[in-house]
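Practice problem: Selenoprotein O
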Amino acid sequence: RVFRAAMQRSAGPPSWPGSPEGADGGGWLSALRFDNLALRSLPVDPSEDSAPRAVPGACFARVRPTPLRNPRLVALSAPALALLGLEAGGPEAEQREAEAALYFSGNRLPPGSEPAAHCYCGHQFGSFAGQLGDGAAIYLGEVRGPRGARWELQLKGAGITPFSRQADGRKVLRSSIREFLCSEAMFHLGIPTTRAGTCVTSDSEVVRDIFYDGNPKKERCTVVLRIAPTFIRFGSFEIFKPPDEYTGRKGPSVNRNDIRIQMLDYVIGTFYPEIQEAHADNSIQRNAAFFKEITKRTARLVAEWQCVGFCHGVLNTDNMSIVGLTIDYGPFGFMDRYDPEHICNGSDNTGRYAYNKQPEICKWNLGKLAEALVPELPLEISELILEEEYDAEFEKHYLQKMRKKLGLIQLELEEDSKLVSELLETMHLTGGDFTNIFYLLSSFSVDTDPSRLEDFLEKLMSQCASVEELRVAFKPQMDPR
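Answer key — structure tokens:
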């Protein structure tokens, strides 16, 4: 009922057709204090031409969001908006929701915003794809929160940019709701992630083949307000890559090491200030310390994913955050039955991004980041850091987290790792539900009457697969002939 009511609530007169209305003062969003450091620190392409094109010599291209018909709010996250100094709810809740729908759809621009699209490249499924960039997301600017933190605002699904290629720059309601919910769920699970402030849908429609079965349908255009310290990613540093040995593709800013230096200065100075301060007089040492820190953050992030059964689905280098956040929620999923080879992305035919491959793939992606930092960080230094730090940090954090999930918090024993492995193997052989079994274990007390143990075991077994389900799951893949 709440969802239907939100769908029916109009956010005022639509701004359609034409460009978004100009920056508008007053109202709830006048509290936003924009300070767009990224655009002052990094080169910006001056053209506002949104036609697909190469964008050389720049990290951003100026764009304008494409308006939607009759935008209206589907959901908002009060905790996420509070980061920006925006208070949701209260006696003016309806007016604030209408304002959010109008501005966070891209139909109007908040005062102080400077819409732009970020240029980056990426290795997709192991192959260098050349220029990619924000094909459906638009940087609005950076807001100073009430505690002084800087937050980048991004509208995902706000229309065509120079990086849209053959796509339409839009996202639809079903995928936007998934991203909104998972962003906030991951945060409240304690996992580093981008945040989602609002989800705004509309009467504008695009055609999508939902099940890739040749039956396309019209779906509502929807925009998610994403919030993070930065959306710069590993692939942002790949815009300098010369022609790839295998694909022949290259970055749009080959031979522009001056921009690579600018990017390192900006990223380290803004998001790793303690490293900048400690190594201000030696750029190689500074860059090595930065690479060591992002290596450790990435290892800890993947360990967190593995401990909750989260599968990202598209771990390309352009989907790896330069500050160690979960970013770009696409065909993600959470495991039900424990299967180490679980694949959540239907397009991942080889299982490159399967659940058990995530630690290995993220290490591979760090290797590509290391290549992209040359010559500002010699490869022999970054490769040594990667080998010394990544696996050890992942294993340490993973075991610490699994000990907590199992209640092994008073003593840390060598056999704990074996216990975890045997539990997971048992889950795999019995088709145990990854989340529900840990949930049940958390309810078991060592002081429980021994006579109740049998009841508890029955509850555990209820979360395992039936004999028929196991027969199907372990059916040989080879032709029996």
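Discussion: Confidence is low (pLDDT under 50) at residues 1-19. Students who identified this feature from the tokens alone can consider the problem solved.
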